[in-house]
Amino acid sequence: MENNIRDTHLKNQSKEPIIETKGLSVFYNNRLAIRDINIAIEPNKITAIIGPSGCGKSTLLRTFNRMNDLIPGARVEGKILYNGIDINQKALDPVGLRRHIGMVFQKPNPFPKSIYDNVAFGPRINHYTGNMDELVETSLRQAALWDEVKDKLKESGLALSGGQQQRLCIARALATQPDLILMDEPASALDPVATQRIEELMIELKEKYTIIIVTHNMQQAGRASDNTAFMSLDRENIEARIGILVEYGKTEQLFTNPRNKETEDYITGRFG
Amino acid sequence: MQAKKSGQSEHSKLLLSEDSRRREGLIAFIFKAAAVLTILVTIGIIVSLLSETIGFFARPEVSLWKFLTGTRWQPLSSKPSPENFGILPLVGGTLLVAGVAALLAVPVGLGTAIFLSEYATEKLRKIIKPVLEILAGVPSVVYGFFAISFITPIIKTVFEGWLGLKVMYFNALSAGLVVGIMIIPMIASVSEDAMRAVPRSLREGAFALGATRFEVAIKVVTPAALSGIVAAFILAISRAIGETMAVSIAAGSTPNMTLNPLKSVQTLTAFIVQVSFGDAAAGSINSQSIYAVGMTLFVMTFVMNLISDLVLRKFREVYE
Ligand SMILES: Nc1ncnc2c1ncn2[C@@H]1O[C@H](COP(=O)(O)OP(=O)(O)OP(=O)(O)O)[C@@H](O)[C@H]1O
Ligand SMILES: [Mg+2]
């Protein structure tokens, strides 16, 4: 399975979607949370997922690296093609998959280990055989954190500020050399300056990586992303609280000229 | 008018009545008295332990140096002399039993904790956890009889029958194993509490990097919970050192200076029991000797706690 994933890496160049879902639905304890999501994610682009709280943005994001496997009672239906391979099948090893797809969480969650060990964690469990010091340095540089921590790599990752911790988590994700990075509201716990650093960082990173980011911050989505997906609760059956994909397209187009009235209401802030 | 009235009564509620103030004072007094009583009892125990211990060492038949370094413990011999009051066989017996117990209980207890916290479903955990707590509550006499009626025969069969080694009926191995079984629930339960206190977000972070369940348990959860786990070990090993009934029954009462777990040994606690159940007169050298032995036990447990403090300070991974 892992080999197959590697073989299809080349497809990236031909602009095939890196992720494509077909009829994707997720249930929690037999309660439908998101329904029939069809979305194709372009490689080397930043895709923003926006929408009101509880509409299933995190749920959708977590299907891409099979994190929902860890939630007892969660069930995922439909196809999720990652470089053309359906990753929503029993035979697929989620552990191997997660080594290709990095994730950054809402609240910075560095391990209670040294800065160095945080970054080296992924490569070590991957039995990385190259030069670890170099990999740690490169990852920290890519995450724009190197200059701030290069003299204290042995100190605890928890001794850093919130914004630095989040960049450490990004460096940690980069160190496993993924091709897709999932970010679930990575800047929501940060001040505006730290938020801006993360945004600049994402734009730098998209040359080499594909990024999907969930955000509540409209300016952020507008500034930083290439494509935007707007999710919301299904209006036809509002009590059931089922998340659906309402509109998806180029960020510029979606923000200036949304096709859907609900999208327009949401991005202009007229949404409850 | 209405509003004003209720405002007034609200205000008057803020002033405590004479009655309720007196009641508060009484309650505070009762709690204070309980605290003082506890402290007094503790001081009383230490003082009596100390005075009897000093009385023991003041005797001409014993010397502190010989007590600490001597390798023969025969206090009941007809003619007491310093050569017969060497504590090392009892300390050795205690450490041998506790060591065997730790060798069994630390890996099994930690494994159980990891299983319960990282692998078991919520349903299974809800069944196993109470069972552990019941096991921890079984009286230790029961464990003692379990040792001689069940564990000792197995040891005899394996070591004597199959391997041809000489096994005494009362032996340190049987006592150590049964004490190990006794402290497994404590290690498992306390370690598991520490592991479950590790935030979920740390596990998710590791899973997202492609860690397996095992790697998450060993490389993230265990180090993050280390202070609690070490505390569980220390607590359990202190209990193994202080355990009395089961070891008196299974290990026998022959003070032996040995590292061979197949031999009979006497532990510090077993000696205290032996003398207490005998007819040593108050103030006699025998009755005073148990205070010296008790003091040794006290110091050992105290040192264990100091060591655990040092270990914790060195290896702790603080996660908040
Ligand atoms: N572990 C879970 N167990 C049961 N239900 C869940 C679980 N996680 C999410 N849900 C439900 O699924 C729905 C979607 O939740 P999700 O967290 O994906 O929303 P979200 O769009 O990310 O919201 P927010 O913007 O507040 O983060 C919600 O109704 C939520 O209650
Ligand atoms: Mg969310």
Give the topology.
The complex is a heterodimer of chains A (272) and B (320).
Chain A: H1 2-7, E1 19-28, E2 31-41, E3 46-50, H2 57-63, E4 74-82, E5 85-86, H3 94-98, E6 101-104, H4 115-125, H5 132-142, H6 146-149, H7 162-174, E7 180-184, H8 192-205, E8 210-214, H9 218-224, E9 227-233, E10 243-250, H10 251-256, H11 261-267
Helix pairs in contact in A: 4-5, 4-7, 5-7
Chain B: H1 2-13, H2 18-58, H3 64-69, H4 88-119, H5 122-137, H6 140-162, H7 172-196, H8 200-208, H9 213-224, H10 226-242, H11 245-251, H12 268-277, H13 285-315
Helix pairs in contact in B: 2-13, 4-7, 4-10, 5-7, 6-7, 6-11, 7-10, 7-11, 8-9, 10-13, 12-13
The complex binds adenosine-5'-triphosphate and magnesium ion (MG).
Which descriptor suits the 3D outline of chain B? Answer: globular
Using the CA coordinates, give the radius of gyration of chain B: 26 Å
Distinct helical segment count of chain A:
11
SS content category of chain A: alpha/beta
**Percent of residues of chain B in helical segments?**
over 70%
CATH topology of the largest domain in chain B: MetI-like fold
Biggest sheet: strand arrangement of chain A: 6-7-8-3-9-10
Q: What's the helix count of chain B?
A: 13
Oligomer designation = heterodimer
Determine the strand fraction of chain B and express it as a percent band: under 5%
Mean pLDDT of chain B: 86
Low-pLDDT parts of chain B are none
- The end-to-end span of chain B amounts to 54 Å
Tally of structural domains of chain B:
2
Q: Main β-sheet of chain B: number of strands, strand sense, barrel status?
A: none
Count the beta strands of chain A.
10
